[in-house]
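Exam revision sheet. Question 4 asks you to relate a sequence to its structure. Input first:
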Amino acid sequence: NDRGKSFRDEKFSFHCLCGLPELGVNTEVATTIGLIDVLWLDKGTNHVACGFEVEKSTSIYSGLLRLADLALALPDHSIKMFLVAPADREKEVVAQLKRPSVLAANRGTVSYILFPDLAQHCDSMCRFGSGREVLDKIAKTGV
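Answer key, C-alpha cells:
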C-alpha cells in the first residue's frame, strides 16, 4: 500500500517487488500477508525471512494479528517478526505482546523496534550489517 511513498527522495517502490511471490497459501491468506508493511525475502527465493508492521497511529493489535497470520500460514519459514512503533506507544506494544493469543500464534517471536532506536542506528546497521541478525541489536521483546 505504501509503494508510492518515499523517504529521503527515494521511492519505496525501488525496494519492492511488483507483487507478492507465490507462497503456497490460499488467496485470502495471501491478501492478508500482502497487507503487512514490509516482508523481507531471502535473496533469490520466496522464503519470508522477516515481517515488519509499522504502527505509528493504527491499532497495534491489528498489526500483530497480520504477523500471526503470517507465522501460522508459513510455519516452516522461521520468520522473524517485528513491530515498529513510536517510543510513546511502547507500553501499549508491550501490553499487546503479552496477550496469550499473540504469544500462542506467534510462538513468542515478535520483537519490537522503537522509531528513535531505528533512526539513531539505521546508518550504522546499513554500513556494518548484511543480514537480518543486525536487527537483534536494537530490537526488544515484550516478555
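Marking note for examiners. The longest helix spans residues 60-73.
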